[in-house]
Amino acid sequence: MNIVMLGAPGAGKGTVAKKLQEEYKIPHISTGDIFRENIKNGTELGLKAKSFMDKGELVPDEITINMLLDRIEKDDAKEGFILDGFPRTINQAEALKIKLNEKNTKVEYAILLDTKDEDIIKRLSGRRVCENCGKPYHIETLKPKTDGICDDCNNKLIQRKDDTIEVIKDRLNVYHKQTQPLVDYYQNEKVLHTIDGFQSLDAEIIEIKKILNK
Ligand code: AMP
Fold first, then answer.
1. From the alpha carbon of 68, which atom of ligand 1 is closest?
2. What is the pTM of this model?
3. Taking the mean position of all CA atoms in its chain, how far away is CA 133?
4. Known catalytic residues?
């Protein structure tokens, strides 16, 4: 089963994708996570991506597309995948389509988490993540048991550089200009499903499971 999660930054694509990964035993693949991992490990790819990410801009397609197409070739993605943060441009969607066509398959579900920008700004500017395992928290709605410390691995919580108000606004602009056209793109492919991105995670998962189990 090949699934693409669509939605603005901070809509909750990663959280939903992680739940679906447990449920359907197919990997959650986040291009943002792959870039952050590379930055942490000081790789050449990480170095190239960092300057774009810090400004809230998209990493160029020639870097991103090859990285993602290599990732979905891995053994764990043989039965499918849940993409989170890819595609982000029509060009990326077309590259994915061509690759999947070669394997006689396609994106079967594009799930849009629908949100309002003002809610996203509140959500992302209050987000904190564990610097070690990446687990997300929120300064008001999802506090850790001990202030500033990850419940799971006891490491420090930090604010992502791209979660400051200025960069969030830039990321939303980039989303509306470059990524939102994918909603029409997947609508034309007849695989688009839209759900309210500001319900509880449980409610979202129930809705998505109904779509996927049809
Ligand atoms: P995310 O964690 O999905 O919000 O991604 C964080 C940042 O990584 C984005 O703001 C981009 O700079 C970069 N990024 C992630 N996925 C992509 C993609 N598919 N295309 C270009 N840049 C990406």
1. 19
2. 0.90
3. 16
4. 13, 88, 127, 160, 171
